[in-house]
Amino acid sequence: MQQESEKEYDFVIVGSGLGGLVCAYILASEGHSVIVLEKNHQIGGLLQVYSRDKTIFDTGVHYVGSLDKGENLYQFFKYFGILDKMKLKRMDEEKFDVIRFDDGSEYFYGQGYDQFKKNMIGYFPDEKDVIETYCTKIKETCGKFPLYNLTVTGPSYQMDSDMMELNAYDYIASLTTNERLRNVLAGTNLLYAGVKEMTPFYVHALILNSYLSGSYKFINGGSQIAIQLSRGIRNFGGEILKRKKVVGAQYNDAGQITSVVTENGEIFRGKEFISNIHPAVTIDIFGENRFLPVYRNRIRSLRNSISTFIVHLTFQENSVEYLNYNIYQHHNEDVWGGVEYDQETWPQTYFVCTPFISKNEKYAESMSIMTYMKSEEIEEWSHTLRTVSEPGEREASYLRFKKHKEEQVMVRVKKLFPGIEDKIRSVHSTSPLTFRDYIGNKDGSLYGVLQNSSSPTRTQINTKTRIPNLHLTGQNIAMHGILGVTASAFVTCFSFVDKDKLIQKVKDA
């Protein structure tokens, strides 16, 4: 039986990932009536946390950049009114990221360009000019993205085909013949699931620059962003409803959406609609006949970034010291090789971090080890679904698969941290299925659509759709990550709010 909401909202937002929440905050703060519909029991998409053995684990956000005073994300968080409510831990000045190779050699990324250059020139004294040129190119590239620099005018990346088509691997390789330096400079490419033939240099540049501009961990987990944003949204009169899975839409004769329909038959009426879910899933929900075949085919054929397998360890009390930095471990000399992994030697590339928990500053409660996993590996269980709001069961064979994978990861971890096995209380893991079910894409893709330097326009997705009152936001639209998704949500809202005035508010925050 269908129940129709009495109210017609100015904006109905489908999905409460960061993009949806940022849009809701902006629009509610501008006086619009807003409702956010979320299918899960927890809001936030990749900001979600979960608990095992009374220990909190982050789903997707393990650290964040651009949070030093005056940097872009710092200003965005001030504008949202959440900066002073965030519990943040600044990572080590000299090393927030450590790039580590099979031979045991380590290279530290320092905070800020001065420390970064000092470290790199220390490792590679003969390559001083290369390192200077590289850093200059990073800054120059970031200067072509107006919103990244909190402006809506100036040179635009979309007009610069040379920059859009510049490949990250090729550019770094053009600077130096020193293989180790090439690999160190690209050593954090797990942050964007880098693919040698595809990843544009601008993706590499925007992300590296962000982390050099103030790297922080969220104390007690990244879900606080979603919690604080949701409070702000509600303070402006916005509504957020959980366990409301949108499965369809209703239209008027002019081809405009009048309402969305949830799985349990509820109808939510609106004037404008914003989808914060993957464009391919959006097409399924809003009716494929409403989109041109050429658009449908392009969206459905876009390659998503690879998925992930994460092993979470909980430790016995006061047994493992907290690390105020992350480790990117590479077992193959080519840091781009981890994506096309070999089953026998998997995992070849992985990220290690210890979350910071306020009640014990010296010791880690837990550790997360994140590596690549293709969604094809979990294909035989793809018919199953398991979330808190839809608690289905996975088969015993799936649990055996996960256990086997956990053991493979632990072989690597024991070599990295000798004796760690004696300090572990429990082992848990998440696979591409977990990400698929909680984020709502089709294959558990970690960072959404892969950008492609060979055909940049093909992977660019407009926030406006052929349906006059349906707009898109989220990590698939421009860039992934906290900063990328926040910026793309602003772009979505520029259709409804004066962009100059809005960005001025961010600057004045």
UniProtKB/TrEMBL annotation:
The keyword Plastid does not apply. InterPro entries: Amino_oxidase, FAD/NAD-bd_sf, Retinol_saturase. It comes from Dyadobacter frigoris. It comes from the Bacteria. The keyword Flavoprotein applies. Residues 18-382 form the Amine oxidase domain. This is NAD(P)/FAD-dependent oxidoreductase. SUPFAM superfamilies: FAD/NAD(P)-binding domain. The chain crosses the membrane at residues 9-28. One of its GO terms (molecular function) is oxidoreductase activity. Keywords: FAD, Flavoprotein, Membrane, NAD, NADP, Signal, Transmembrane, Transmembrane helix. Pfam families: Amino_oxidase.
